[in-house]
Amino acid sequence: MGFARLPGVRVVALCDVDSNVLERRAAECAAGGKNRPAFEVETTGDVRTLLDRDDIDVISIATPNHTHSMLACWALDAGKHVYCEKPVSHVVEEGQRIVDAAKRNGRICASGTQGRSASSVRSAIDFVHSGGLGKVHCSRGLCYKPRRSIGADTGPKFVPSSVDYDRWLGPVAYLPLDRRQLHYDWHWNLATGNGDLGNQGIHQMDIARWALGQGGMPKAVASVGGRLGYQDAGDSPNTQVAIFDCGEAPLVFEVRGLPKDKASQSGKWEMDRYEGQSIGNIVHGENGMVRISNSYSWADFIDGDGKKQREWKGGGDHFANFVEAVQADDQSILTAPIVEGHLSSAFCHLGILSHQLGDAATPSEVDSAWAGDPIATDAWGRMRSHLTANAVDLSATPVVLGRPLQVEASGEAIAGDPEATAMLFRNCREPYSF
User: Fold this and answer.
1) Is 362 left (phi over 0), alpha (psi -120 to 50) or beta?
2) Which 8-state DSSP code applies to residue 370?
3) What is the DSSP string of 23-63?
């Protein structure tokens, strides 16, 4: 609905493979609301019926991750401009396909990483890039967000009758539903989602990478983590530290889905905080640190003595930025061009890939593997303390020490690792190839 309130924009159709969702959203359009006029839309369960329509200039994509790249490439090749929610891809190579499709068709394509349109975030990043922090030591993304168990029922599961499951799966090979609910919890199944690193986390990953001025793939990736504290139908890590070698300074990403301690599990989950942040970014440098809120409405600079020296406030309108670029037919106007969404998505995918290819490890084995890196050792030590506070027995449910990955600059291969290289790509089920 973010587009409907903008001048010069007319929403003419909605598409969803769940007819119940489609009916509700169409009713919302007809009812209107605060700062939004009432309007009627056509509805469909198959996006392909929209691609040849001359009265549609833009396709906006907010589906599960595993269909983002397919829909974006279909729309771009049909001559539409595209707004694609994060992550723009499900595996690394698919993001480059969108970049290529946008270039090939001369279309505007933006990523839904909204922090890039916020004035406070942009000012904070400008401060870092202009040398305000001095030499940057580390760029850190935090995703300490409560993620409860999605259930581990062993009985048969049935897809809701309102859902066209074939279209919902799209390019993914057929798999039965193995969890209590189809919607949203697909995030925690790596066949369709990318865990919280690629869900909430990509927003903070994008800002962390932006702060470093990292315009390409990381040189190397390492990970430690697991799905810990409960057993359920998910297979993505709910607790993870991923370290990305970006040259002069590392990018460190931390995911915690459990609360701060075992006592917090009995009520509303209170989450850990690091330097005052639970979800957000911290850029560490020789002159102090810059903190960026996950609300994208404020950021500040704390000097080496712990005193706040600067603060930036203000948000932005990411949808309006995209529409402005489309109306001007000028990609340079975009605050979040698709190539940035592709790279930030790729970082998330690589962190998950390291985990997927890892092995169970004892704490001492992790200590040994990461002993030469004080920043990684610190992050792992704090994660281990967090798990202890949640009464997680690492001898009974060990962490996974991810496989170290040496990433080729093109992003198309992992050096000396054909198994990992193959997982940068995905074979699509027909007729959902792209």
Assistant:
1) beta
2) T
3) HHHHHHHHH-BTTB-----EEES-GGGTTT-TT--EEEE-S
Name the amino acid, one letter, at 53.
R
Q: Is 354 helix (H, G, I), strand (E, B) or coil?
A: helix
Q: What is the mean pLDDT of the chain?
A: 97
Of 250, 331, 304, 258, the closest CA to residue 134 belongs to 304
d(CA 327, CA 331): 10
The number of residues in the chain equals 434
Residue 110 is predicted with a pLDDT of 98
CA distance 69 to 98: 6
Could you read off the pLDDT of 142-177 as tens digits, one per residue?
999 999 999 997 788 999 999 999 999 999 999 999
Contacts for 378 with CB less than 8 Å, ≥ 6 apart? none
* CA–CA separation, 91 and 71 (whole Å): 14
Look at residue 208 and tell me whether its pLDDT is greater than 90.
yes
Assign a CATH topology to domain 13-115: Rossmann fold (3.40.50)
**Residue 209 one-letter amino acid:** R
Tell me which DSSP letter residue 398 carries. Answer: P
CATH of domain 119-316+338-422: 3.30.360.10
Q: Where are the domains of the chain?
A: 13-115, 119-316+338-422
Query: Do the Cβ atoms of 366 and 401 come closer than 8 Å?
Result: yes
Nearest to 86 by CA among 242, 204, 240, 217: 204
Residue with tokens 């209170």: 270
Burial class (CB in 10 A: 0-12, 13-18, 19+), 159: middle
Q: Nearest-CA neighbor of 47 among 89, 16, 19?
A: 16
Give pLDDT, residue 302.
98
Q: Is 406 exposed, middle or buried (0-12, 13-18, 19+ CB in 10 A)?
A: middle
